[in-house]
Amino acid sequence: MKLGIVGSGKIVHDFLTTANKIDNLELAAISTTKRSEGIAQDLAKKYDIKEAYADNDRLYHDSTVDTVYVGVPNFLHYDVAKKALEAGKNVICEKPLVETIDQAKELKKIADENDRIIVEAITNIHLENYKQMKKDLSEIAPIHIVSLNFTQYSSRYDNFLKGIIEPVFDPKKDGGALIDINIYNIHLAVGLFGKPKKVQYYPVMQKGIDTSGILNMIYPGMQASLVAAKDSYANQRSYIEGEKGTIYFDGSPGVLSNFSVDPKDGEVKHYKLNKYPHRMASEFNDFVQIIDHHDTKTANKLFDHSMAVMDVLVAAKKSYM
After folding, report:
1. Do 106 and 143 reside in the same domain of the chain?
2. Can you give the residue range of the structural domain that contains 13?
3. How many CB atoms within 10 Å of residue 48?
4. Which SUPFAM superfamilies does this chain map to (predicted)?
5. What pLDDT does 321 receive?
6. How far apart are CA 130 and CA 253, in angstroms?
7. Can you tell me the distance from the alpha carbon of 11 to that of 8, in angstroms, rounded to the nearest whole number?
């Protein structure tokens, strides 16, 4: 896979620290705004990226690029992904995929018409711990209570309190705790249990944005409570509770670095199966395999999962707005 990166923010910097752990990946180009041109050039030098552009159109039409990684703020995902697909590139788009169901359907239509692949970059459903956890659900079933917690005091929250509003706290730019971090909980819950019958979001609102909140997802015979906070600190632990035992894990649901199975009758089993120390390495190794082998079956399955998550997000927004 010959990757062109659009964006030079925090997530791109983070990804580049593990790019050398991704097999058969070539960093072909990076593009950013004119204002951030120096950052792109510095990243290109540091990580041996072949081209650095201050014009996204040049990257879209770079013949050495076969796939575009969309690493820009949420509200720009749709426009960048659409232009990349129309230019004949595969697309890996950071979470959340886009803002609306119609936008997601349009991007998939363009991808299919151009025989290209579009996938959402979401870490946890590609991790080895997640795959094992899904297998172990049967050991504690039937499951009745799920409590997932992603609490992360935002590095931008202090500025927010001072009135400096950055995209992650801007309602006009698809910001907020639901979209930015509860999406990891949603991907995990939908991946493990499927789409819920009903959702209801209870946000903590400040300056017109949800800085934290609780999303209730209702299933037949099961309730899931998904907590996400950008305005608080916590030592996080999440639980999946069943009649025959409990599965629990500590830390971020996006990293999922560990989990334990505690059966009602038996010994606790502890797992740390993730192959790579960085949370983004497994997903991008999967994406390289999918794109290099043009594996549309797996790509479509991942897109269907992303659409189910989109349905939850849209319903959650409607439930409180």
Report:
1. no
2. 2-121
3. 10
4. Glyceraldehyde-3-phosphate dehydrogenase-like, C-terminal domain, NAD(P)-binding Rossmann-fold domains
5. 73
6. 10
7. 8
Cβ–Cβ < 8 Å for 262, 181: no
* Residue 38 main-chain phi, psi, to 5 deg: -65, -35
Question: Looking at the 3D structure of the chain, how many domains does it have?
Answer: 2
Q: What is the pLDDT of residue 311?
A: 97
Q: Are residues 64 and 110 located together in one domain of the fold?
A: yes
Q: What is the DSSP string of 108-166?
A: HHHHHHTT--EEEE-SGGGSHHHHHHHHHHHHHPSEEEEEEEEE---TTHHHHHTT---
The DSSP string of 63-121 is TT--EEEE-S-GGGHHHHHHHHHHTT-EEEEESS--SSHHHHHHHHHHHHHTT--EEEE
237-242/245-250 β-pairing: antiparallel
Q: Is residue 286 part of a domain?
A: no
Same domain, 32 and 165: no
Question: For position 155, which CATH number holds?
Answer: 3.30.360.10
In a domain, 251, yes or no: yes
